[in-house]
Structure formats: C-alpha cells, structure tokens
C-alpha cells in the first residue's frame, strides 16, 4: 500500500481508496485455488458492487456471480453479466422483479428456504418457455437464513421444488458464516469441513429420493481462503470479501494485513492538547463501527501508527488519541493525512459513492458502485454528454446536461452506470443517480 503522502494533495477526504494490485492478487489467488480443486468459483459481489472489480473477479467472463440485492442484480444485468444468483430468500414483493430478470437473462437463480416462497414463485409462471432456477438455502448450523439441514422439512421442500412444473431444483446453497467466529486456520477448516459434509450428505439424500443433478455450493471468505480437501467434491463456492479483505479477516486468520486492499484516508482537522486528542474528518459516515471494542487501536488500525487509537466517531468526526502517554502534535500537522485500515471492508465500502483506485503509488481511476437494496441506482458521474460511452442511447446523448447540472437532485437525469465513462479525476464534479 502506498503511503497517503503519495496521493494528490487535492484529494478530498474522507476517501475510500483501493489498491488495484492487491485486488488483482487476491482475486487471482482465489480463482487459481479453486481451479486447482476443479470447483467453480461464483464470486459474491456484495463487498464492492462495481463492474470493474467484478470483471477482475470473473477474469472478464461476466458470468457466474452472486448478488445480495435486486439493485445489484439489475446493475450487473445492465452491465452485460449473466448467470446471476440472487442469494437472498425470495419474498412476494420481489417475485415480479425476479421474473423479469429470469426472462431477460439466460440464467437467473433465486433462493428459497420455505414453502410459502415456493408458492409465490408457482403463482408467477415464467414466459418464453423459461423455468425458475431455484436453489434451496440450507442452514448448516450457521443460524441465519436457511432451512435446517437436519429438518425433515428440508428434504420435503427439495422434493416439492423438483416436482413442480416450471421449476428446476438447481442447487443446494449454504453459507458457513460461523467461520466468522473462528480464530486461525485449524478452526476455519473444521467449520468448512462440517459445512461441506452436511451439504454433500444432503445431496446424497436427494439422490436416494430420485432427485439427480443438483449442484452443491458453500461459501465464506474464511472457508474459501483455507479450503479443506473435501471441498473438491462441491460444484461451486461463493466467497466475496476476499477481493478486499479487512482487519476482521486478518484476526480470523483468513489473510494477513498485507492482503488488505482498501483504506479510508482521513485528514487531521483539529489539535486539542487539553484532552490529548486529534480530530479527523472521518466519522461513522465513512467508516463502519464494527471494530468498536474489538481492537486495541479503536475502530480501525491507523496504518504506520500503532501508537494511535481511533477512540470514537460521530457522523463526520473522529477522535484520535495515543494508546498511552502524551500525543506529539508536531507529528500530525493540520491537514496531514492518516490511513485507516477498516475492520469491515464491506460495510465501509457501502458508505462511499466513489472508490479511488491506485496502483504503485498513483491514482489510476475511480470505480462507482451501485447502491440501495431494491431500486436500481446507476452511477454517480460527471455531468456532460462527453462522459458517455459511444453506445449510450440517443436520449442520453441529447439530454440537457447543462440544465441537469443546475437542477435539484430530484430532477437529475437518470443515467445507468453501464453507459458512463470513468471519472478522469477524483475531484471531478459528481452528478446524477438512479
């Protein structure tokens, strides 16, 4: 990671910065790991929610991904992606959107863990001869979504899916989120082994019941960072955080601090000797609070300054003080930068509308993530027809961009991010959301 002093002085803070070289290294390591095992990697997009990072994670195939929201699903479909798994228990309010995506794409998968959800899908038969591609969400002692693996109802629900006209029981999906309670590789592998075994045993039960060709998939960044040999018997895995990693993953044992690709840059905006504190411009609107009480350095690791602690945050402010002793304020002039390693990269990334991308100490571009849960939001981009790709629709090329630049937010021109060119400079004027 380049030091903050190597970035342009006019970079507005707080800023979410991404080391492109580490992202590529992390992505390649995961892809190659499961290529050797003969298992399909279906990377999860929830951590970054960008087209650019997705292209890296899929090596340009633009296929076989997992999303956690319909906003993400629409965003990636608009961006040319296919074979998308919406890994969230489907409910009645989302069936219409799921149907539209299923009819639009060659492969769109949904997740169910209860019979009521299945009835909602039954009530909405797909057009054009399409079938619902359904994955059964199995809870393998993680204790979140999913029908318990040991429940007789799980097998009954699987049978009902497989026997329903217009539906295909495509796979069994389990999230081994209980790896997040692990400390070290041995514990991670124990959970990975248990989850793998339970999923494979369930697939064998399906075969015994005459249900064939059902895929098996488990995933979490810890389990996929340290896979057990039996995972080679799975069809797919679906980790996501690994492309960025974070302090939490380093504490679990998934990675080292050197593997963390993201930082939040913040500036010193105040000296307060009477309380032995610095004030910085990063609050909980720019950095997740997950790390509170978990680190000796407060809510994050302050890079190159183990003697400092981010003790508290309000919406736009952070208080920094020494772990012990008196603070030497001369080391941290007003306007100087500190680099924060986030405890939780997914939650922190969600707070930033633009990521600053750097490589070898230089800013090389920006990535614009999608946002929201249900309504697709496109890019935040520089206003002007000159910032559109050549294949952008005529309605965008002839739009009144000058008027939009002056308009209130509610009247902004709707611009899907797949038609926008990347920002040329991180301090460019940002306008337009959808």
From TrEMBL:
Cofactor: Zn(2+); pyridoxal 5'-phosphate
Entry EC number(s): 4.3.1.18
Domain D-serine dehydratase-like: 261-359
Molecular function, one GO term: D-serine ammonia-lyase activity
Entry annotated with the keyword S-adenosyl-L-methionine: no
GO biological processes: D-serine catabolic process
Top-rank taxon: Eukaryota
Pfam families to which the protein is assigned, alphabetical: Ala_racemase_N, D-ser_dehydrat
Keywords: Lyase, Metal-binding, Pyridoxal phosphate, Zinc
Entry-linked SMART domains: D-ser_dehydrat
Top class in the EC scheme: lyase
Catalytic activity: D-serine = pyruvate + NH4(+)
InterPro entries: Ala_racemase_N, D-amino_acid_metab_enzyme, D-ser_dehydrat-like_dom, D-ser_dehydrat-like_sf, PLP-binding_barrel
Family designation: Belongs to the DSD1 family.
PANTHER family in alphabetical order: D-SERINE DEHYDRATASE, ZGC:162816-RELATED
Protein name, UniProt field: D-serine dehydratase
Species of origin: Hemibagrus wyckioides
């Amino acid at each position: 990671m380049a030091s903050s002093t190597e970035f342009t002085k006019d970079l507005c803070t707080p800023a979410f910065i991404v080391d492109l070289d580490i992202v590529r290294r992390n992505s390649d390591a995961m892809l190659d790991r499961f290529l050797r095992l003969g298992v399909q990697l279906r990377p999860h997009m929830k951590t970054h929610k960008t087209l650019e990072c997705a292209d890296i994670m899929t090596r340009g195939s633009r296929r076989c991904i997992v999303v956690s929201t319909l906003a993400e699903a629409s965003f990636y479909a608009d961006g040319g992606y296919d074979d998308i798994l919406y890994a969230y228990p489907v409910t009645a309010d989302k069936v219409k959107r799921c149907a539209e995506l299923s009819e639009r794409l060659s492969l769109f998968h949904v997740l169910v863990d209860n019979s009521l959800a299945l009835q909602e899908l039954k009530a909405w038969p797909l057009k054009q001869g399409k079938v619902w591609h359904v994955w059964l969400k199995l809870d393998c002692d993680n204790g979140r979504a999913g029908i318990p693996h040991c429940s007789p109802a799980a097998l009954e629900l699987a049978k009902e899916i497989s026997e329903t006209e217009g539906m295909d029981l495509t796979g069994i999906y389990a999230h081994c989120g209980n790896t997040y309670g692990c400390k070290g590789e041995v514990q991670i592998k124990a959970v990975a082994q248990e989850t793998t075994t339970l999923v494979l045993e369930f697939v064998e039960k399906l075969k015994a019941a005459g249900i064939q060709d059902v895929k098996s998939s488990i995933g979490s960044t810890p389990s996929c960072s340290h896979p057990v040999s039996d995972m080679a018997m799975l069809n797919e895995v679906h980790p996501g955080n690994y492309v960025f990693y974070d302090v939490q993953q380093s504490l679990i044992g998934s990675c080292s601090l050197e593997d963390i690709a993201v930082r939040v840059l913040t500036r010193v905006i105040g000296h307060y000797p009477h309380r032995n504190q610095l004030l910085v411009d990063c609050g909980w609107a720019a950095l997740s609070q997950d790390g509170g009480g978990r680190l000796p350095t407060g809510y994050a690791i302050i890079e190159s300054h183990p003697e400092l602690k981010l003790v508290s945050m309000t919406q736009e402010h952070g208080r920094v003080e020494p772990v012990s002793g008196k603070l030497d304020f001369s080391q941290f002039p007003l306007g100087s930068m500190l680099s924060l390693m986030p405890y939780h990269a997914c939650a922190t990334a969600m707070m930033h509308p633009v990521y600053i991308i750097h490589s070898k100490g230089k800013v090389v571009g920006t990535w614009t993530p999608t946002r929201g849960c249900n309504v697709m939001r496109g890019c935040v981009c520089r206003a002007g027809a000159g910032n559109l790709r050549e294949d952008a629709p005529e309605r965008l090329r002839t739009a009144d961009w000058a008027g939009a630049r002056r308009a209130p937010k509610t009247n902004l021109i709707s611009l899907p991010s797949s038609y926008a060119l990347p920002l040329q400079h991180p301090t460019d004027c940002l306008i337009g959301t959808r």
